[in-house]
Design brief:
The protein is an alpha/beta fold. The protein has one domain: 2-Layer Sandwich (Nucleotidyltransferase, domain 5), CATH 3.30.420.10. The chain contains 5 helices and 5 strands.
Length: about 170
């Protein structure tokens, strides 16, 4: 199963594509679509959409995992990130992909087993699970890979649960 993970942002939208076979993950590709701070917001959103469509076309994922929006105080930033997230969802929906959404807490829980894990722990776990030489940069890329791995774990659990309920295990 090929899974695209997305960490939405309007300056940096991280993406990571992993291949899941059984309980094993391998990296297929990862990076970020970036926008210039001087671009008008409509142009930034268009650039994010086009960049993500290119990623989808290149890597041909079967499903998508996107991080849900979380913010504490800055509502203006949250609205802008929400717009970028909407663009990501639209690109995936227009490509006919199934979309799963996870909170940051769920992603941390899915990787580390602890929902309050620190960013460094997540990055090191991504590096370890994917057998990478270095932690992927920028941080948004590692977060996107974490979202993809979380979805893979979740799908694997769901498939095992279906077998158990059907009396297959």
């Amino acid at each position: 199963m090929r899974i695209l993970g997305i960490d939405p942002g309007y300056a940096i939208m991280g993406y990571g594509v992993v291949e899941m076979k059984g309980n094993h993950f391998s990296p297929v590709g990862y990076g970020a679509v970036t926008t210039d701070k001087d671009m008008p917001m409509p142009d930034r959103l268009k650039h994010l959409y086009t960049g993500l469509m290119d990623v989808i076309q290149e890597y041909e994922p079967e499903t998508v995992s996107i991080e849900q929006l979380f913010f504490n105080t800055n509502t203006t930033t949250a609205i802008l990130v929400g717009q970028a997230r909407g663009v990501a969802i639209l690109a995936c929906a227009n490509s006919g992909l199934d979309i799963a959404e996870y909170t940051p807490l769920q992603i941390k829980q899915g990787l580390i087993g602890y929902g309050r894990a620190e960013k460094k722990q997540i990055q090191l776990m991504v590096k370890t699970i994917l057998n990478l030489k270095e932690v992927p940069k920028p941080d948004d890329t590692a977060d996107a890979l974490a979202a993809a791995i979380c979805h893979g774990h979740s799908m694997g659990y769901g498939q095992r649960l279906k077998k158990i309920r059907a009396g297959g295990i």
